[in-house]
Design a protein that fits this description.
68% helix, mainly alpha, 2 strands, elongated, two-stranded antiparallel ribbon, Fumarate Reductase Cytochrome B subunit, binds protoporphyrin IX containing FE
Length: 349
């Protein structure tokens, strides 16, 4: 079926090209220089259709009874430039960037190991994330992982998977990846918008962030740097990742997902380059976030899965927030002690 469609497409293209050629040739008697060039070329170099192709690739509108933007343009030459950018810098640099980030995280983990609690856990728990914050987070996180995996299959699959798994499985897998990417994308956008609303109030920069940044978060020195509910690194992930990259990925994705708003092919090509570049940078940053939220820091994953942290954890990693919560005047919800015997306390035991 696909082959039949391809043959029909080829036949139509050849028909259109020969039509252009014939049209050029027919007007040969007129003073149209393009038609004269084609006429001469036919006599001096039979079979050389360069003037026809030049005309086809010029991007000039031809005639068609169909309505719509650019429908009379048979070949848009910028498409070839786009293809070279896709298969060149985007794939090559993007692929290496991801590999290097993974290698850096592996090197960091093997040399430094996970960030462990220095004090003994107290057994007293503080609520760190309420259920709205957690549901929002996991909606975004799970949809992000699905989008990242399907996006990687669509971008690199031809080079990496096809030679290994063959055409049948690869076509099935890419069709699945494309549909997942298209349907999960809008869910991710809604989750992201909600995340911006829910998390913004504790992400405004303050003086403590400058100190945290000046000391590199104590990551290399291993020294304790006081931070509020979110430290400067987390705020950077919120503003640079969630807000900036999130909006750029969503806007460019919507331009690609709904081509029925009469956007030009060139607009789609630019949107694709932005979408792929932003997506790859988002994934690179996301890898760092996922690392620190799972194996990189003891107690972090529980904070987002169950919503609570040990007081010792809160004091070591977010001392200013801990002090606020203990004073009972925390502006930042949720905070507060988790009563012993609460369901999520039991789950921890
Ligand atoms: C499987 C993927 C992910 C895991 C395992 C994960 C894990 C975590 C954990 C453990 C925290 C709590 C940190 C703390 O208590 O200080 C957290 C916070 C957060 N996550 Fe994720 N996350 C994932 C994906 C994402 C994605 C894709 C986004 C956004 C695009 C995101 C945005 C946030 C934000 C805004 C916070 C609060 C501030 C911060 O810690 O940066 N997460 N995540």
């Amino acid at each position: 079926m696909t082959t039949l469609l391809r043959l029909c497409g080829l036949a139509l293209t050849l028909f259109a090209i020969s039509g252009t050629g014939a049209a050029l040739a027919q007007t040969g008697s007129s003073s149209d220089p393009r038609a004269q060039a084609q006429q001469e070329r036919r006599d001096t170099q039979p079979g050389n259709n360069a003037p026809v192709w030049r005309e086809v690739r010029s991007g000039n509108q031809g005639y068609t009874s169909m309505q719509g933007q650019e429908v009379g343009v048979l070949v848009q030459s910028a498409g070839e430039t786009w293809r070279q950018i896709r298969n060149g810098p985007v794939t090559v640099y993007g692929g290496w960037m991801l590999i290097l980030v993974v290698l850096a995280l592996v090197a960091f983990f093997t040399t430094k190991g996970a960030i462990k609690l220095r004090e003994k856990p107290t057994g007293r728990m503080l609520e760190r994330f309420n259920s709205l914050e957690r549901v929002t987070h996991w909606t975004v996180a799970i949809s992000f992982v699905v989008l990242a995996a399907s996006g990687l299959i669509l971008l690199f699959g031809k080079h990496v998977l096809l030679p290994i798994i063959g055409y049948t499985l690869f076509s099935w897998l890419t069709a699945l990846a494309k549909n997942l990417h298209n349907f999960i994308g809008p869910l991710f956008i809604l989750g992201l918008l909600l995340m911006m609303v829910v998390y913004i109030r504790d992400n405004f920069p303050n003086a403590a962030d400058l100190q945290w940044l000046a000391k590199g978060g104590g990551l290399l020195s291993g020294k304790h740097v006081p931070a509020g509910r979110f430290n400067a690194g987390q705020k950077g992930w919120f503003w640079g990742g969630v807000v900036l990259l999130g909006i750029a990925a969503s806007a460019s994705g919507l331009i690609l997902l709904f081509p029925n708003f009469d956007q030009l092919r060139f607009t789609m090509q630019i949107a694709w380059i932005v979408h792929a570049a932003v997506g790859l940078i988002f994934m690179a940053m996301g890898l760092g976030h996922i690392y620190i939220g799972t194996i990189g820091m003891e107690g972090a994953y529980q904070a987002m899965r169950l919503g609570n942290v040990d007081e010792a954890w809160a004091k070591e990693h977010h001392e200013l927030w801990y002090n606020e919560v203990k004073k009972g005047g925390a502006k930042s919800a949720p905070g507060g002690a988790v009563p012993a015997g609460a369901p999520h306390m039991r789950e921890k035991q």
